[in-house]
Amino acid sequence: MSATASAPRATAAPRAHSRRPSIAGIYVWELRKLRAQKRTYLGLGSAVVIPVIFVVSLMLQSGDVNDVPFGRYVRQTGLAIPPVLLLFSSIWLLPLIVSLVAGDIVANEDGNGTLKTILTRSVDRQQIWLAKMLAAFTYAVLALVLFAGVGLLLGGLRYGFHPLTSLSGTRIGAGRALALMGASLLAYLIPLCALAAIALLLSTVTRNSAAAVVGALMASLIMQLLGVISGLGFLKPYLLSTQFDAWQGLLREPADWAPIVRSAWVSACYGIPALLIGLTNFVRRDVTGG
Amino acid sequence: MSAVVHPIEARGLVKRYDHITAVDHVDLTVEAGTVYGYLGPNGAGKTTSLRMLLGLIRPDEGSARLFGRDPIEEGAAALEGVAGFVEAPRFYPYLSARRNLELMATLDGGDAGDRIDDALATVDLTEREDDKVKGYSHGMRQRLGIAAALLRDPRLLLLDEPTTGLDPAGMRDMRQLVRRLAADGITVMLSSHLMTEVEELCDRLAIVRSGRVIYEGGLTELLRSTGQRYRLRTTDDRRAAEVLAHQGGVGEVEQGEDGLSFAADEGIVAELSIALVESGVGLTALVPAAASLEDLFFELTEDAAEPSPSGSGSVGRTRPEARSSGGAAALGEQVRS
Ligand SMILES: Nc1ncnc2c1ncn2[C@@H]1O[C@H](COP(=O)(O)OP(=O)(O)OP(=O)(O)O)[C@@H](O)[C@H]1O
Ligand SMILES: [Mg+2]
């Protein structure tokens, strides 16, 4: 450094009470950090590539998609594509994409040793953590919208936006089907955010990104496993994995709200404690790394 | 709380890790306008103390206040006007230096963003500001750490071994910068294990060892406080050591490769010189040793329980670094006896 350059002078007078940084400002920077990291694109990339592969393979093959609701209609209307995609990949792909980022977003700072850097500025720890939580949720929304959106767009371009046959066998006009699709995504987002909360918790507590990502995914898969063990059937309604199917209630006529209501409170039972524990741990922890 | 609010006031700080007490009842008062040295060997607890001051870790006992505010209780508000880093400064490797500083400025609020250009210029990183920190050398990161601290327009700077890992020019620049910041009225607390650095920069210092403060006070007082020591070179150090051992009033005899040293009063030294000659030991040098801070440091921070060197010519407590500076001083003042 040059001895000639002038250093910012310390003012003797008490400085004007500075504007305190807001969570919004930190949140924007959390998004910018995500934008600068490769792993972000790994997740978003698969959220785009998988619908593309699905639609292309539909175009190349003539066989039906059996065993899943809406499978029979995928070549009749593009509107059937997003539900099938969600059914196929709901319990592993989107949870994986979301934990990839949510499991990393705190632990990454431990790995880089940057926690001490940002915690010696003018922001409180809870502001940082909440901004990270918001960024992780934003990423979940983005991944889900991309996933369903790409499927819908490609499916629509290839097979048209014709009316959709609901799970009850009734026909739903394209406009209403689109609205229902949006609502379904919102319903799907509830357990997805709960899973993101678990990944955030693990990211905060383990301080290790790989452990948090794998841990969150394991939690999701173990719950799914518990759900298929016949003796444990009574558990099934209370497992987080089950809630990833609740959105289907909206594609019935009349709409079946019961699974969605249950999904909301069951997901809250998983997500809110995870967030509270994660936040408390972050606020109270010793920052020793780096 | 006392009437005067000091930049740093720590009382009874304790931090334990499993079986080690990293910081053991440390009291510190750093007054405004001082450059305060926190000196200790590796593992003495310097970084741990600074982490507690910055609110990064919770003390098990005691409390720290910066300008009268406790960072554990008040969070970020207590760091108003305070900046610094512990250990090597860390940044987001995937962002450029400027982006990193922009991020810091957002976290600082206020007008920190307006100081980015100045801060980068101060540490000579303007030309590399758009390079990702991933590709930065250790010295560049260290400088970026200073730049990040300056964004906060601090009244108190806490620096953990700021010159560690820098090349000689980098060290000189860093010290010049610290001096200039101090001249601007910023209170600085810096940890170091380089006694020369503390001697050069600091007005006051605390010497820590195994988590405990074993000296706290002004630099000059410390230098004055030590008893007078002498260095002795002879034609036969073994015999000389025996003579020293039998001479009353001679203490703390140490034997190193470049001769003996001991503590004694002037009168005793005169008697000793006669006794040595009478025993057939020729004197090549008998000089008062100017106690350098470095010697003091070793004296204070190393275990007195170490086996005292026998006449085998082992190095004993006299470290090579200590010899180089102390030896040079002795040579400079060499007196023919
Ligand atoms: N997170 C931790 N877990 C366990 N022990 C720790 C931790 N941090 C510090 N210690 C221990 O506390 C003691 C003091 O460490 P500290 O890093 O404060 O020393 P230091 O004076 O900064 O040393 P150096 O000059 O090497 O930087 C050491 O014995 C160290 O092993
Ligand atoms: Mg240290």
Description:
The complex is a heterodimer of chains A (290) and B (337). Chain A is 63% helix and 1% strand. Chain A is mostly helical. Chain A has one domain (21-289). Chain A has a two-stranded antiparallel sheet. Chain B has 337 residues and is an alpha/beta fold. Chain B folds into two domains: 8-219, P-loop containing nucleotide triphosphate hydrolases (Rossmann fold), CATH 3.40.50.300; 227-288, Alpha-Beta Plaits. Chain B has a six-stranded mixed β-sheet with strand order 5-6-7-3-8-9, sandwiched between helices. In chain B, strands 11-12-10-13 form a four-stranded antiparallel β-sheet, with helices on both faces. In chain B, α4 packs across α5 (138-150). The longest helix of chain B has 16 residues, at 168-183. The structure holds adenosine-5'-triphosphate (ATP) and magnesium ion. Adenosine-5'-triphosphate is lined by residues 17, 20, 22, 40, 42-48, 193 of chain B.
Give a quick precis of the structure:
With 290 residues, chain A is mostly helical.
Protein traits:
heterodimer, A: 290 residues, mainly alpha, two-stranded antiparallel ribbon, 11 helices, 2 strands, 63% helix, globular, B: 337 residues, alpha/beta, Rossmann fold, Alpha-Beta Plaits, 2 domains, six-stranded mixed beta sheet, four-stranded antiparallel beta sheet, elongated, disordered C terminus, binds adenosine-5'-triphosphate, binds magnesium ion
